[in-house]
Amino acid sequence: MSGCGVEHSLISVDQALKLIVEKTQALSVESIPLQQTLNFYLAENVYSPINLPLFSQSAVDGYAICAKDEIEAEAVFDLIGEIRAGQTTDLFLQQGQAMRIFTGAKIPVGTTTIARQEIVDLLDLNQIKVIEQLKQHADLRDVGEEIAIGQCLAEHGQQLSVGAIAALSMAGIQQVQVYQYPKIAVVITGDEVAETIEDFASGQIFDANAPLIRAWFAQRNQQVDIFHVADTVEAVKTLLHDLIKSYQLILTTGGISVGDYDFIRPVALDLGFEQIFWKIKQKPGKPMFFAELSKVDQTHCYLLGLPGNPAAVYVGMQIYTATLLNALQGQKQLPQWFQARLSHDLKADTRERFLRMSAHFEQENLTVKSLGKQQSHMLSNLMHANSLVRIPAHEQMQAGQIVQGIFI
Amino acid sequence: MSGCGVEHSLISVDQALKLIVEKTQALSVESIPLQQTLNFYLAENVYSPINLPLFSQSAVDGYAICAKDEIEAEAVFDLIGEIRAGQTTDLFLQQGQAMRIFTGAKIPVGTTTIARQEIVDLLDLNQIKVIEQLKQHADLRDVGEEIAIGQCLAEHGQQLSVGAIAALSMAGIQQVQVYQYPKIAVVITGDEVAETIEDFASGQIFDANAPLIRAWFAQRNQQVDIFHVADTVEAVKTLLHDLIKSYQLILTTGGISVGDYDFIRPVALDLGFEQIFWKIKQKPGKPMFFAELSKVDQTHCYLLGLPGNPAAVYVGMQIYTATLLNALQGQKQLPQWFQARLSHDLKADTRERFLRMSAHFEQENLTVKSLGKQQSHMLSNLMHANSLVRIPAHEQMQAGQIVQGIFI
Asked: I need a labelling partner for A260 at 20 to 30 A (CA). Which of A233, B94, B207, B332 fits?
């Protein structure tokens, strides 16, 4: 069997991503406190239970004034009290009266405008003078001017960013329906993996994959359980059989090629997983494997088998795991690729490549430049890369051509 | 005193950022396990203790072969054993011999090239035939070809991203010197702040600031301690006096303007803080306050006073707190602004503005578009914003002009 023939049976990057999006079923929905929802996706529309602002209020520190018309410079008003943010008052303003007021404080009944303190002279304890001409309704925030009661604040599918959490908090939202985040097990295969300095022996290598995956989830504020397994059918089978009971997603590294010790795929199929795809026409990360297990309780367990080379694991996490996590949370969306201008020529390759690159803006134009040491067992250029860029197969790329990528 | 006169005494955004970078002293350095260092900054150069690859190895599953010259198609070799990744062998290859080998396995002594399994036929248990012509040194990874022992892997000041942690792990690095992350207290001022539905009463508002700040730090994988304080000199003084003993950074929200109940600044000065700046010519967030306390033990406590309006807090965190946190960790760097093309005209304003915008790529050109509801007490447009964009003061901006911003 020639290498060339094998390549023809592979699916493309876009086909693989499409299969992840189409075949993955969303997890169930749960209601959790808003402050625990960072990066979760809403499973409901959220409507405002209040007006925002909640009441008409002063936008500045100054004086609430009652005046039928526009105020002329040097106009004098009687000062009848004070109102602070967070307070209410029984007093109300009549024509010619004023009250000291602070930013965010509820305006007293009768207020027609606010004079900011910079344009007011205090004549005595009971009188103020407004030194400039002042319009009606100056520096007033009206009840509901930002949001009205019942208005839709956030839509089903919205990701809860820092800003979104703040905005919902301001409207008094404390609990929201979100898509559950999967319980994730990570299985590191390979007898050659030395995890600690003590394990290190001739022929073994240090494991970059477990630290990489742990940090990748930490960056997203999530934890995963990591397992190491020996390269035997029995060990892999015992572990996977156990994990499918309590995890919704199993990520594996290594053991999915066609080597004599690549047991992940045969064991998964033997345990009842159905293959969704195996092998993508890409570099790094060709032997990627994706499968689904339907359980008797109608739930699913997904297995994404990443290759063992750390650069392939990195691409697998950034491109495929990210897409899969979104799909599991109801977001059937492909990666949001930026477009950038390539700063140099690139040789053609028979497979689509993900190259680690340095992206920067020249004026408003995003330009990307490839870094050295792109082989699948090499990672050191990630010290300097800030993007992962797609280079199409079979194309001799020229400087100035437009390519797609993601920031990393 | 007119509003105009006040504006003239304010410093610019760039001046404020420069003062933060110049005046902030880096915290001390500590040695911590690599896997706990996500987003920390290195306080040392890290040199590789090993070669990478650690030993010469096969890049594929196939056969290690000993042949003096290039191999002709149909050449036959004696199969004398097998070597897996993570194993070593006492066997060595002589002219005309081959060993089964797997990706990442250490090549046996005598290996001149690797035949990938796709181009090999197994004739019987003891003989293989290489069906294609094969060069010397094919699919071999040489010891040290990525990194040589003693080579600098990562430089002082490098931020430890997911990829950096993976790359250092692969070289066997387990512990690194990093700049300490500050212990941070957040003080939420304001009697008008209702934190729970039970506190909610007429004149009070829901607090967006504590959830915003908590989520902002969670996004960076960090925690902070949050305190609420009443609007009295005594309460503010008691709390700050306590916090300066054990925190290196105090962030406050509200209470830093010139209102009669704005106690943060006077209390801080009273406790011995020296003002670095107060008031920035920007919108939102004019009354921002930054001060430093030198303690008897030669350490410092910094106080960044953010305004109380949530939009100002958001800008304060993204622009100023982020810069300050970097400076505290030895990174004296200004924000890395992108450049983008404005998609519409904008009216001039007397102060520089940070507008919440939607940024997107048209081909490789980044374009930004302003969203509605930009006032400092409004946050709801953060549901749709993905960038904060600087609009210079006193300039009538035209569609197509280049502006600076950050992604949020």
From this structure: B94
Mutate to test the interface with B, among A45, A88, A103 (most CBs of B within 10 A): A103
What is the ipTM for the molecules in this complex?
0.89
Instruction: Select from 3.90.1150.10, 3.40.50.2300, 3.40.980.10, 1.10.3720.10 the CATH code of B3-28+181-328.
Output: 3.40.980.10
Residue B31 burial class via C-beta count within 10 angstroms: exposed 0-12, middle 13-18, buried 19 and up: exposed
Q: B373 to chain A, minimum CA–CA distance in Å?
A: 7
State whether A86 and B190 contact (CB < 8 Å).
yes
Minimum CA–CA partner of B46 in chain A: A383
For position A323, what pLDDT does the model report?
98
If you average pLDDT over residues A308-333, what whole number do you get? 96
Q: Helix and strand tally (H, E) in chain B?
A: 8, 26
**Does domain A3-27+181-328 bear CATH number 3.40.980.10?**
yes
pLDDT tens per residue across span B167-193: 999 999 999 999 999 999 999 998 777
Residue A362 has pLDDT above 90, yes or no: no
Architecture category of domain A57-141 in CATH: Beta Complex (2.170)
Task: Compare CB distances from B208 to A169, A206, A367 and report the shortest one's residue.
Answer: A169
What fold characterizes domain A338-407?
A: Beta-clip (2.40.340)
Span A156-209, pLDDT tens digits: 999 999 999 999 999 999 999 999 999 999 999 977 776 565 555 566 778 899
Neighbours of B35 (CB within 10 A): 16
B197 pLDDT above the threshold of 80: no
CB contact under 8 A, B106 and A203: yes
Q: Which two tokens stand for residue B200?
A: 């909610």
How many CB pairs (< 8 A) connect A and B? 300
Contact list, A408 vs chain B (CB under 8 Å): 161-163
The whole-number average pLDDT for the span B345-356 is: 95
DSSP string, A346-400: B---SSEEEEEEEEEEETTEEEEEE-S--STT--GGGGT--EEEEE-TT--B-TT
